[in-house]
Every structure is written in C-alpha cells, then in structure tokens.
Structure prediction request, 594 residues.
Amino acid sequence: MTLDVSLRHSFGAFTLDAAFEAPAGITALFGRSGSGKTTIVNAVAGLFTPDTGRIVAADTVLLDTARGIDLPASRRRIGYVFQEGRLFPHLTVRQNLSFGRWFAPRGAVRADFGHVVEMLGIGHLLARRPGRLSGGEKQRVAIGRALLSAPHLLLMDEPLASLDDARKDEILPYLERLRDGTDVPILYVSHSLAEVARIATTIVAIHNGRVIRAGPAGDILADPDAVPLLGVREAGAILTARVVAHHADGLTELSVSAGSLFLPRVDAEPGDAVRVRIEAQDIILANSAPEGISALNVLPATVTAIHEGEGPGAAVGLLAGTDRLLARVTRRSVSGLGLAPGSPCYAILKATSIARRDIGAL
Amino acid sequence: MTDFLSPQEWTAVALSLRVAVWATIVSLPLGVIVALVLARCDFWGKEVVNGLVLLPLIMPPVVTGYLLLVLFGRRGPIGGFLYETFGITFAFSWTGAVLATAVMGFPLMVRAIRLAIEAVDPKLEEAAGTLGASRVATFFIITFPMILPGIIAGAILCFAKAMGEFGATITFVSAIPGETETIPSAIYALLQVPGGEPKALRLVIISILVAMGAVLASEIVARRVARRIAGR
Prediction:
C-alpha cells in the first residue's frame, strides 16, 4: 500500500510544489517550520484543497483537481494524529477511541481494540476524560483513536513536538511498535532529524515548499551531499547492530558488520537487532589504527564520498563493512590525511557520545 | 398557591408562565440556528443580521411593541397575511404576548448560545471529520453536547426575560386580565389603584424569585460549560 502525492499551491510569496511517494513503513516529511510540511499533510487529509494536485492512497484517488475529484475528509479513511492531540473533551478515553469505529465502513479491516489499547499502554485510562491526562497519555490515546478508525493511512503531524524529552522517550517505542506491528503506512511530519533517524523508513526532505531529497532513510542519512540540506549539526548515519552481551561495567557490546561497538547500556536483549544513530560530528577519522586512546570504538572503513561545503567543514561518507557512516571533519583534516574516495581509514567513536534516544528498534 | 394568591393574581402568574414557556420553546430552534450562523458563517450583511437580533435589547421596549403592532396587527403586512391565510391573530391575544416576549428574550438567548459555540474549537470538528464523521454526525456527537449547557443557559435567560417583559407586551397586546395581563402588567395595574401596593408586593416577590432563580441556574450551567470543555 503506497501513497502518491503531487501538489501545487500558491500562497502569494510562498509556493508549495511537492511530489513524492510514500511506501509502507514510516515516511518522514522532514523540514524546518514553515517549509510546507503541515500543508502537505492537511491536503492529504482533505482539510486543505490545493490549487492543483493529485493524491492517491491505496488505489483510491483522494484528490485529482484535473478531474474534479476532491473527497471530503470524512470519506478519505485517513487517520490523523494532530500535534495537539485534539481529543474530544466531553467523551471518555474509551469513547474517544471508539469514535472512528462508529463511522468505519462495514467490512473494513478493523484493528483489534484490545490489541491497540495494549500496544499503546492506555488500558488504565479508558474510563477517564482527556482533561486530566498527561501530554504523553493524550498523544497515545490520539494515536489509538486514529488507528482504530480503520485507516488506509496514518498522518502524524509532529506528534511529539509538544512533549518534553521524557515523554518523547515514552512514546517513541510505541511508534516503533506501530511501524513494525501494522501494515498501515505512516506519513510522519517532523523537524527533528534525531526523531526521523530513529523511526523513519523513508525520508522526504522539504525546503521552501519543495522536495529537495527523497529516498530510503538509510541512504539519505548516510549521504554526505545531503548533510547541508538536512542540517550540519544534526547529520548522522544509522547503522544496524545486534546486541551481543551486557557487560558488568555497564557497557553493552554490539556487533556491526565491521566489528564490535561498546556503548553505554542499551535497552535491548542479547540477540535483538537495533538501529544506532551516530552523529557525524562524533566520529573522528584516522589513517592508521590509533593506539593508546580512550575511545573504545574503532572501525576500519573506506571513504566513499566527500562533500566539501563553503565553510571549513566537510562531510565524509564511509563504508564500514556493509554499514554506511557519516563523519564531519574539517577540510584541513581531509587534505591533511589525504582522504579521497577509496582511501582506507579508521572511524573512531567515543562510547559516551551515543545518547540512549539514538538507539531504537530496527 | 391559590390560598396565598388571589384568583386574579393567580391568573396573572399562570398566564406569565404559559407565555414564557411558549416563548422559550418557540424561539429555541431559531435561536440555535441564528447563533450557529453568527458564530460560524461569514457572509455579506452578517453585521446587519447581528444588529437586528440585538436590536430589541437596546431599543425602548415600547418601540419594539409598536413595531410588532404595525407588522403583526390584524391589518399589518404580516399579521394580515397570517390572519387571512391561517386565521392566526396576535393582536390582543396571549399568542401576541408570546411573540412579544420571544422577540425581547431572543437576543439574550442567541448571545448565550453563540458564546458557547464560539468556545468550541473548530479543530475538534475537523478531527471528527478525519475520523469519518459527516458534518451532521459531528454536530450531534461533538458540537451539540459541548454547547448544550450554553443552550440551556440561553433558554433560562429567555424564559426569565419573558416572565418579566412589560413594555413591548403591553404596547402590542395591552393588558387584558386572563388573556394578556402578565405579572408585570398586573403589578403595574395594581400600583395605579390607591391601596394596591400591598397586593402588588406578592407579585413583586414572585418576580424577584423568578429572576434570581434564573440567574443562579444560568450561572451554574455556565460553570458546567467550562468544566465540560476542559474535559474534566
């Protein structure tokens, strides 16, 4: 099940002109505030009609301005998780969750109520009204409500933006379970690259109303040329690792294709596959194996591409085993080490530079 | 009650209740519709409609009564038509008192309902739409329950205003005992007669009680609106 979007709308000085395809899994619409992400999502939901456009979800034409088709929001079968939750204050949590089911067409494939409630951990809230729920609880109920309306597609507009870090950490695992436990495609709006790296399968980067990059998350995050587009400070590739063991000194050993990584205790069982986001600025490059340093992780790698920006920095794409890495170093270091595509080198990573939030389920 | 009140007073009280109840019932559906239109729709001339609704609140009641007499009198353009087509008369009949008090209570009712509608976040209705609810279903499941306390408060205010209305009623339908003499008209009549004051006192007390009860009830309901919208 995929979603095809192509839109054009002029807001005076700002023009939205975006086209992309969202396959199964989580497609992240990534971009700064004001780049047009929410407008795109609202158009998909049917809350906004663009000048021209065509939107097709699961073989149903939702919008085709050329043919005069514009299904109303209530007939699009799209679950929308709003930034502010928008739970119905006069209904209980149970009634909120059931709301969409009352209107789902007969014969629609319905998510099991008990299963969704359990997955989101909201069983103890069912009899309450939304007014006194915490921000994180509200968002989980909102996700459940959207999911239970038997949607063809889920839209999430910055569902974590209004939450503090602790609440974000509380919800991210639920989003991963949602991604892996249902086959409903999810269009996820975010301006946080860390969040996107943690959960997205596909990334569509939006800038000034245009798609500037689109593709599988692993490819885009590891592409040195995309670094200036996504944000130099936040850039970083994701690599897949398997938990080997938890050691007595509090470190977890993970195996990656090029060797082992030692990171502060990871919340996963030995044998579990995880995805680890390594920020480009946390990687140090060396052209010989370093000795006598405190950094625990040294992976042999090969340079695949180098993107030199206008400033003093350069983004270096690396291949370590079969995993891609991204390092941000200075242009001076690139020339000092004589790095060029094909050069062998060593990627050095401090164990403590990886935050717990950078590690998620695969 | 009949021991406490003289038959004449009792007639006035019963008539007032009947007039006020009917005035409230008749204007309620229209009040909800007008409040919805004023709160949610934008159209050319909206301010004029708003002004017309509020006019009876600001104009001297005697002017409202006079205009009703001109329009709805048996020879008036609307009254004449209604009399000839349906045989309905307003002038000097209790139905005329219903009309006059409804017109006077209408602005208060619309205002209370409009405020309640404006307190409902349209984004909630949008959310209901994305969950598959049609506009009609959204109105009845989301909007209506949230504005219900406002509707009740509006109805209470309209009822209280109708119980106490004097100027427009007496101008339009006079004060015929048993037909159009409501409590305020009866008080006025008693005060015109030497020695009538003690008799008027009982009706005055009833008026005060009705007004106080209505204000308290509408305040309680208004507090419930706030709680309901906060979702506690």
Notes: Chain B has a mean pLDDT of 88. The interface with chain A takes residues 121, 123-124, 126-135, 137, 141-142, 145-146, 228-232 of chain B (CB under 8 Å).
